[in-house]
């Protein structure tokens, strides 16, 4: 299994760790310390060796931070984790705060005194994050101090070793473009920007550029490494040599210089000494890298990671591979839904047992299609009843809840195949749903359809599109506290920038981008609802009678949506037509891959509404 369900260890009480950290800070003459959920590579998902926030606080979400002062401490989470944080963290030790509405630097502003020294690890904060803290500290007459050694590491006695997965090439026939071609394109970008080099600090940017994959981070097929793109010379890939077989090293050496990671800061300093102009993304580059460059008199040119947009604009080969992956995954998901339909109310299944069953179906589908399941794309969110209301719930052996009749079951899951990454959420009625459940589900479905059918001009932002998915909920005084859509990679990160569909999504979707469409509704202590498909932004096309071409979306996820939860009277004729057409496509596409009871379930669950 790619997911384990072990309960978090509490061998050493969190309070003891907090006391030890405060003692460490006192010895260093510090009045506080910032602990982000980040590693040295600024990824959202990080290896066990970098889970400092979880080790210190108990909070295991994929986004957050903590600030520890001598007399108080706070843990910051976004809307996805407001319930989870209170389940995992002792609020007597860490006060939960809103990561978005009251971020750490603002919280710290009201706590500082003249002369305070607040420490941070400059490898773990981006340049932009460090600047926000520095400004707050300066305004209070305090100092934000970059530390050579992380004080959490100093007290984390049983810290896991860093990962050492083997690097594997991503074949050109799946990437759709050679690494040499990508490097030339990036060098042209550097020339246009008038810079000599660019720092690549994000692991998925490096994986895409060099057409490589790895397994350094759970569920994310990336290699933890750094890279320097150089305008007039070969790029340099900084990677632990133990991750490279002789064959892979030889292949990479055809297009890049290969160095150990420890050489990276030395080379940055050399660029500075030479007065080179280096492109740095302040949102993703560790503060240490910028400081190393500027201390050596290099010229810092701030701008976006040059790889992020090209990576997000999928080419035709990547899109074809992703569609194949979704057909395979849709068959597995339909087999799972058929199995759940027969077994969900038998009183023997639990959140863990059904999550294991879903992974089994995915493995079988990959084997049958000669495209093995290489990983799941994130820990499966398997939430029964009230656990479904915890947006990013992660079941473990201590929280495992039985699947019971008369409840809703929410499963958000995905797979990593060599040709594509999937992410799908379905909410299923176990037994007979209440009228309220049907009403809420249908409003979420209306929002899902509104986004799936949207036509919009180029330049429309993710925030503008986000309102479409919320409108039906808003009319009933309802909403949800997470974004509606995120980017998705191709056998890469399931959460990919830079575009997102959310209240804070200020960039416009572009043709070829893969995004999620996942509105939801959550009733604390009762149930959760989410419907998620992946969608591809389609090129601009004319609309009959219109005077401007419009972009749109192609839905690529294929699996039935629970008709038992739909209040048909709430749907417009156009919405009914969309759902019937979607189900007809699901049926036509998946039927050849299914047989027996699975096929019978598919045919029954994709009938037109009212049939």
TrEMBL record:
Q: Has the keyword Hydrolase been applied to this entry?
A: yes
Q: Which GO terms describe its molecular function?
A: aminopeptidase activity
Q: Identify the Pfam families for this entry.
A: Creatinase_N, Creatinase_N_2, Peptidase_M24, Peptidase_M24_C
The keyword Lyase is annotated on this UniProt entry: no
Domain (Peptidase M24 C-terminal): residue spans on this chain: 549-609
Family, according to the entry, reads as follows: Belongs to the peptidase M24B family.
Q: What is this protein called?
A: Xaa-Pro aminopeptidase
